[in-house]
Specification:
Length: 349
């Protein structure tokens, strides 16, 4: 048996600082109305005694939980297999940690999970939500709106302006997917390639649609057979590349919707005896270094700042939480951000 170590109390902090218990409570729980000199004495006593504020009491004073839900509209098998999500979560975590906020990760496998996430957010467990990888028919935005939780989206939401009365107030962080796709395809055309194909991502996501639009901006008269839909995975890239080669064996360049798709396409080209870039040039999207630098050959790609997107999403949400009047974020103007992309040249194109 070991003797339990007693935790410092508010009364002990008050005695050490020479102030009332109420004064200590206001300081440690974020309340106002305490003179600077007294507040400093309380903070010094808290540090000396190792006092840890009671979170429930702090929440009653501040109306804040210091917790943010990160909702990824994908099953866990996809989230933990795709390094894109790890990089975005790392950016979010860094920003939340820097502001002493907890990250609560919520994943959705199916409709039952959507309802569960909606109930959790409506239950008042978190101050706000960061939501990404939405699909066009996803019920999550409506559930989150019903929960009344301030939200920042990762990626341009799929509803058009006017299609949803709440759409103009949606705050999101995205990359210039369409512009990046144009840069990729122009690079292939500048290399002298004339039969440029595109392996699209899942077209129920706006990033995939925007990248397809960027491809079409450059390849205006391209044969429809040069476009095949994938799903942002290596296996999807393999399947799509086989279909492309069966349709158009004369293809001389491929713009893939992301680096994982490109890695699958490269494997099939190697299996079919096509040299890269001599026979077929390949460009990806993301610049996920563990993928792009380890493909054979190393992958030319479009870089987007995935970790920076995560940090910016968290920063925008925390800014809205700090400014919302009486807990109502609806009066704040939307502040969406689209980050630039850049072409990173390696050996594949």
């Amino acid at each position: 048996m070991t003797e339990a170590v007693s935790r410092p109390t508010l009364e002990a902090v008050a005695a050490r600082a020479g102030v009332s218990r109420a004064t200590v409570s206001r300081v440690v729980n974020g309340g106002d109305g305490v003179r600077t000199a007294l507040a400093e004495r309380v903070r010094r006593a808290v540090e000396e005694l190792g006092y840890v504020p009671n979170q429930a009491a702090r929440t009653l004073v501040t109306r804040r939980h210091d917790a943010v839900a990160v909702v990824i509209a994908e099953p866990e098998t996809r989230v933990f297999a795709d390094p894109f999500f790890a990089r975005q979560l790392r950016g979010i975590s860094k920003e939340l940690t820097a502001h002493d906020n907890q990250l609560v990760l919520l994943l959705t496998e199916g409709r039952d999970d959507h309802a569960r996430v909606g109930r959790y957010l409506a239950g008042g467990h978190v101050d706000g939500a960061l939501v990404f990888s939405l699909h066009l028919d996803d019920p999550l935005p409506g559930l989150i709106r019903g929960a009344g939780v301030p939200t920042v989206f990762g990626g341009r939401p799929g509803w058009g302006e006017g299609a949803d009365p709440h759409a103009p107030s949606a705050v999101f962080v995205d990359s210039d997917n369409r512009g990046g796709a144009r840069d990729a395809v122009r690079h292939l055309v500048d290399l002298g390639r004339t039969r440029v194909a595109h392996i699209a991502g899942a077209l129920d996501q706006t990033s995939a649609v925007d990248r397809l639009d960027g491809y079409r901006d450059v390849m205006v008269d391209a044969d429809p057979a040069l476009v095949v839909e994938g799903d942002f995975t290596p296996s999807g890239g393999e399947r799509a590349m086989r279909e492309l080669l069966d349709r158009r064996p004369d293809v001389d360049a491929v713009f893939a919707a992301n680096d994982l798709t490109a890695s699958g396409a490269l494997r099939v080209l190697r299996e079919r005896g096509r040299r890269v870039p001599e026979d077929v040039a390949v460009i990806g999207f993301d610049d996920m270094v563990p993928v792009a630098e380890q493909t054979d050959p190393p992958l030319t790609t479009i870089r987007q700042d995935i970790e920076g997107m995560g940090r910016l999403m968290a920063r925008l949400l925390l800014h809205r939480l700090d400014r919302r009047p009486d807990g109502d974020a609806a009066h704040l103007p939307p502040t969406s951000v689209v980050l630039p992309t850049t072409l990173v040249r390696r050996a594949s194109a």
